[in-house]
Specification:
Elements (H helix, E strand, L loop, with lengths): L1 H17 L3 H5 L4 H11 L5 H4 L6 E12 L3 E12 L2 H23 L1 H6 L2 E15 L10 E16 L8 H11 L4 E8 L4 H25 L2 E11 L3 E3 L22 E15 L1
Antiparallel strand pairs: 1-8, 2-4, 2-5, 3-4, 6-8, 7-8
């Protein structure tokens, strides 16, 4: 309504200037300056008068978490070989890695591999030169002293609750016995995270509400309706473990899954009401 009144006022003023006296008609160069002064004299409506500004709002961040047992584990197993000749090191590495894969598949079992509950996937195959350190510091030319071959795989084990307690340890042990000399993991994750994240989000909203109610009480106001809810960064905090490459005589490494913390973050905005 205010905008309409100002529009009619401007149109009326422009019409009046166009039909004003001879002074303006004889001095057209003064017309733009006159209009500029006229526009500057018109009061600009405040945003809150037009209802475009909103006051009495409070926004609060909340974080919620829930601890759950992981349902999936990842283990990385690799073979690193070094010799003087590239063909020799590649052949040696391939032979040792084939033995490692056979041992892993035998330990896991064909039914688990066929159903996809256990997956073995190659991560990287590399062959790189090894440069010798020059005896003379002033010489900058590099000399190749040998070659390094690396082949690594990632083993993903799902449905951990259906596995025996020593299942992961047996995979590591058997891979190490036949030549794996780089082993890391297990990394425990929650693959089916939908249900625990629902609980974590509820906890996050309750956390935000508790904070907002504390501030509202201190200000002698109360929370009104929710204006907006924004889902923030979420995720889980895994519990990784490292398994060293040991000798074949060592026992199966003990492994505990523990629990993972699922975290949800939200930002909630409320209207504030006076008591």
């Amino acid at each position: 309504m205010i905008g309409s009144v100002h529009l009619r006022l401007v149109v009326f003023c422009c019409f009046s200037l166009a039909h004003s006296g001879p002074a303006l008609a004889q001095s057209p160069d003064t017309l733009p300056e006159t209009l500029r002064k006229l526009f500057e004299s018109i009061p600009t409506p405040r945003l809150d008068t037009l209802g475009l500004a909103r006051a009495g709002l409070i926004s609060m961040d909340g974080e919620g978490s829930v601890r759950v047992r992981p349902d999936t584990a990842r283990i990385r197993v690799g073979v690193v070989s070094e010799t003087a000749l590239p063909g020799e090191v590649a052949q040696q590495n391939a032979s040792r890695m084939s033995a490692v894969l056979d041992a892993i598949k035998k330990t896991v079992g064909e039914p688990s591999l066929s159903s996809g509950s256990v997956e073995v996937r190659t991560e990287a195959v590399t062959l790189t030169p090894i440069f010798a350190v020059p005896q003379d510091p002033q010489r900058h030319n590099s000399v190749v002293s040998g070659y390094r071959a690396n082949n690594s795989v990632q083993i993903t084990v799902r449905d951990l609750d259906q596995r025996s307690p020593g299942f992961l340890g047996a995979i590591i042990e058997q891979a190490n016995k036949v030549g794996a000399n780089e082993i890391s993991g297990p990394e425990f994750i929650v693959f089916n995270e939908a249900r625990p994240l629902v609980e974590a989000r509820v906890n996050a909203i309750e956390d935000a509400r508790t904070k907002a109610e504390t501030y509202a009480k201190a200000l002698n106001v109360r929370l009104g309706r929710v204006v907006a809810v924004t889902d923030g960064e979420r995720g889980h905090r895994p519990m990784p473990m490292m398994a060293r490459a040991s000798s074949p005589a060592d026992a199966t490494p003990p492994i505990e899954t523990g629990t993972n913390e699922m975290v949800a973050r939200v930002t909630v905005t409320w209207e504030l009401k006076q008591d």
